[in-house]
Fold:
Amino acid sequence: PGPVLSICGTMSGRSPLMTSQDTQKRSAWQSERQKLLKELGCKSDHCAWAVLMHLWMSEGIVRRDLCKRYGLSYERMSAAWFERRHLCESLVQAGFLPKDFLQREKAEEQD
Structure:
C-alpha cells in the first residue's frame, strides 16, 4: 500500500511541481522528470510521485537537493508527506492497515 499512499498524499493538495519563467531551469526539471519516468519504465506521473515520495522518506537523502533536481516545492512535498502520514494513521485506526505499518515501513527502508 505504500506507493498508493504516496500518490494519494501527493495528490491531496497543490502539486509539488514548481514553475519558472526561466526556460532553461524549466527544461532541466522536465528533462530530469522524463529521465525518472523512463528509468521506471512508465509514462504516468503517478508512478513518479510514488518514487519521489519514497526518495523523500529515505534515510540520508538531502531533500532540498531532491527538490532542486526535479523542480519540486519543498513546502508542498512536506505537506504531501504529512498528508500521507495522516492517511496512514487514519487507515490504521480504521483497521485497514496493521498497527505497526509505519514502523515496519521505516524498518524496511533501513534494511
User: Anything to note?
Assistant: Helices lie at 2-11, 23-40, 45-57, 63-70, 74-93, 101-110. DSSP finds six helices and no strands in the chain. The first helix runs from residue 2 to 11. The mean pLDDT is 91.
